[in-house]
């Protein structure tokens, strides 16, 4: 799925990049002899990340998410973005530094995501009952787990763990093969069953994490429903909770009302608000006939209840020249401003027929006009 | 080379988009009964483009550029960007509206670009002398021609032609096959010969264009040297001139000193300024070791003499998570600000190992910090 797209490259010495404001080269709690730096912050609403000795501190379970979501990587993308967003409600980007999870190792997460068995007592998924009928087998309920660490600098300038967020991705559909390389079957899981199994898994994960990290830090747990493998949007977080420092019990859950949808809506998959759909259709019609050849216009939409939270639009068309790309981008900016809902963040990617991004437009919730950029070449 | 990447799409009625400031729905000189609109302008430094009846007015020779540059599309991209830049010296983006060339049709341009023969007296390339040895045959000197029209609104609100720019792309290397699907051979053309043949071709093009458009508008001619087919940057414009309204003679040429280069420099291909190369190497080294897996870092650089005019950087690495992309992007912004030359426009594309753009950073010549955007998914 992921291959290393690099030709041979010369490795040369790597100096220290000056660290960002406030965090000059300090020693780190976990490796007191080495300094840490941060990635720097381009935007108040993003966390700075931890760098040790000039290298990014990667997740201890790096790569598990990619393999667990290989059938639809959108589930990984939306899972991680959403998990970071929930974390921001507890750990402000101003006071906390983001570190990829360092507690749960790759083998730990892999064991937890596997079935329970005599060899794997920690498996969060049920034992194999020997059956392979869609409705008779025990499905895999838990699909992915990811830890995020939130760090604070202490009075001595050391960076120490100050909070953990853990996301748990749950299946509504468990895809499986009856034989290797065979046809794909699916076991459906009801919403109620998913939520019930999610609570059971979350309780175990919190107790185990608490045992590993001690009593000093809060643990935020966020439950995610995986999207189907052919979905054009990822899944969404349906509940979350904070387990305060000192506790290892989940007492209550906060339900979210967030879901992702695809525009244009279809007869079988509608969107929560008809006005948004009408606005998108107006925009699409405006764009589609700009060139003699038709443009494809689709979007991912994020909703909280019936309220649109953001749009990510993709436009694909065939360009015959750079000047066409520039003109089209200007036209899209005008049409987007006229037709698309205001007050929400909107990204628009303009792709050529070979799928490469030719230009890009974006606005934040506050902006009224679009930032535009055409990818040109010297 | 270019295929239509669209699935079946519903065509629906297309209304009129409100036109941009100053140009309310006017009638057009060439089709007096139909209104024209413009694409709108996102940026003072770009032209607005012409829309007729809701559709972009495409080039009359649309597609010729793509086929003439199919071996290296960078030659088309840099040709068209550069041609627009030269046009801006004569036709301000404030006063003129851009229109894709409407004078030279596809068959005209194709005839001009072919060899001269009894059947094709207008061919700008020399007759076939029947020989196919690299140094004996007559090479193809002229590779591409493109017309751009610059329009002004008259007192009646009609849009009329106010200037033409024509670009002529010349070969230093003419690639050819001795037999269909056979090996590729190359005839080298000296710089002097290219320039000489370019002047001959330009004189003919101007005279023919003048005959077609009449005496009222200036014609700007710009000469471009095509890059080699395996080049990672396009070619560059080496000379240009303006033929004033009423004249059809080229009296003198303005030489440019603009060229494109690739970073990192190699032993066989150096760059004009060692300081820029050192700055780029520092940046590259800083970036390359951020992850355990190496990142590839290359750039296109535009020079005027020894002065760097702009950089387009491409970074390719393997990401395992969205959080890695966000952290890396912030790190790149900091490193770019620290190491890359200031006072020039810089674009940076961050790509995953599958080649898709994951994030993007850009600054204009005036900016000190970078605009950053991570392409996320719902």
TrEMBL record, chains A, B:
Residue ranges annotated as compositionally biased, kind Basic and acidic residues, are: 128-137
Q: Name one Pfam family in it.
A: CamS
Q: Where is the composition biased (Low complexity)?
A: 20-35
- Region annotation (Disordered) ranges: 20-44, 115-137
Which portions of this protein are annotated as coiled-coil regions?
none
Q: Please report the name of this protein according to its UniProt entry.
A: Lipoprotein, pheromone
UniProt-listed InterPro entries: CamS
């Amino acid at each position: 799925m992921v291959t290393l797209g690099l030709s041979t490259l010369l490795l040369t010495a790597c100096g220290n990049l000056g660290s960002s404001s406030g965090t000059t080269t300090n020693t780190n709690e976990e490796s007191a002899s080495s300094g840490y730096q941060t990635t720097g912050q381009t935007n108040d609403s993003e966390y700075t990340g931890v760098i040790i000795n000039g290298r990014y501190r990667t997740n201890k379970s790096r790569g598990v998410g990619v393999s667990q979501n290989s059938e639809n990587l959108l589930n990984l993308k939306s899972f991680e973005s959403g998990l970071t967003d929930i974390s921001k409600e507890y750990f402000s980007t101003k006071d906390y530094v983001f570190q990829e999870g360092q507690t749960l190792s790759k083998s730990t997460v892999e064991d937890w995501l596997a079935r329970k068995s005599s060899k794997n007592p920690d498996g969060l998924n049920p034992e194999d009952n020997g059956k392979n009928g869609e409705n008779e087998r025990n499905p895999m309920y838990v699909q992915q787990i990811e830890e995020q660490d939130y760090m604070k600098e202490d009075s001595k300038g050391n960076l120490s763990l100050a909070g953990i967020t853990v996301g748990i991705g749950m299946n509504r559909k468990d895809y499986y093969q009856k034989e290797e390389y065979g046809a794909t079957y699916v076991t459906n899981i009801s919403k109620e069953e998913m939520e019930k199994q999610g609570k059971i898994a979350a309780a175990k994960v919190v107790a185990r994490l608490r045992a590993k990290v001690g009593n000093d830090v809060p643990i935020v747990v966020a439950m995610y429903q995986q999207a189907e493998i052919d979905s054009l949007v990822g899944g969404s977080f349906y509940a979350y909770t904070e387990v305060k420092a000192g506790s290892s019990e989940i007492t209550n859950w906060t339900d979210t009302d967030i879901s992702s949808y695809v525009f244009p809506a279809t007869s079988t998959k509608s969107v929560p608000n008809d006005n948004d759909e009408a606005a998108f259709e107006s925009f699409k019609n405006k764009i589609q006939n700009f060139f003699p050849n038709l443009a494809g216009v689709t979007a991912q939409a994020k909703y909280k209840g019936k309220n649109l939270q953001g749009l990510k639009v993709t436009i694909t068309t065939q360009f015959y020249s750079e000047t066409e790309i520039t003109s089209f981008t200007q036209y899209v900016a005008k049409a987007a401003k006229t037709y698309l809902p205001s007050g929400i963040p909107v990204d628009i990617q303009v792709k050529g027929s070979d799928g490469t991004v030719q230009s890009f437009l974006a606005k934040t919730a506050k902006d009224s006009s679009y930032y535009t950029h055409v990818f040109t070449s010297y």
